[in-house]
From TrEMBL:
Name this polypeptide is given: Synaptobrevin homolog YKT6
InterPro entries in the cross-refs: Longin-like_dom_sf, Longin_dom, R-SNARE_YKT6, V_SNARE_CC
Membrane topology label: Lipid-anchor
Organism (species): Smittium simulii
PROSITE patterns reported for this sequence: LONGIN (PS50859), V_SNARE (PS50892)
Length: 190
């Protein structure tokens, strides 16, 4: 699971303008990175431009009704709920730094260190997302509980076996006692 690109796009006019971005292209060859970076920027602006305000679409994209869109590009394995949560956080970070009148007049890229931090934090969705973290802990607990129940059932079977053997031993000792009593009753020892 990997997040390749996060960005904020001004999508209220055509062509859409990429206002801020962060990307992790370390999984690609050094010589391919610039081409892939250009493609991701193009793709993010195109998707934001063609998406209706408030609609979620395609490669995990989230758009706000005010013309600002948060884009997250991931691989197919990445959980969509976590990607949409990341898009919301990106939008929140951008909105904290710039109000609508400020970003409406922007026409070039601005660097926001929080985007790079979010990109790094969300590379492992189980650690970044509270719900996924709780789900993972629940799954681990479920496995431990299943193992415990299986061992308890095995112990119960062993206890039943021990009780049965104990009853057999008790029956055999009673028979031995009766046989020994009969054998001793015929003889008098002086």
């Amino acid at each position: 699971m990997k997040v390749f690109f996060v960005g904020v796009v001004k999508a209220d006019s055509k062509p859409a303008t990429l206002l801020s971005k962060a990307s992790d292209l370390s999984s690609f060859s050094f010589f391919q990175r610039s081409s892939i970076q250009d493609f991701l920027c193009f793709f993010a602006t195109t998707i934001a431009e063609r998406t209706q305000p408030g609609q979620r679409q395609g490669i995990e994209e989230n758009s706000k009704p005010d013309g600002l869109a948060g884009t997250v590009i991931t691989d197919q394995e990445y959980p969509s709920r976590v990607a949409l949560s990341l898009a919301n956080k990106i939008m929140d970070e951008f909105s904290l730094l710039y109000n609508q009148s400020q970003w409406a007049s922007m026409n070039s890229l601005v660097e926001i260190p929080a985007l790079q931090k979010l990109l790094v934090d969300y590379q492992k969705p189980q650690q970044a997302d509270v719900i996924m973290n709780v789900q993972q802990e629940l799954d681990e607990t479920k496995v431990v509980l299943h193992k415990t129940i299986e061992s308890l059932l095995e112990r119960g079977e062993r206890l039943d076996s021990l009780v049965e053997r104990s009853n057999q031993l008790s029956d055999q000792s009673k028979m031995f006692y009766k046989t020994a009593k009969k054998a001793n009753s015929c003889c008098i020892i002086m």
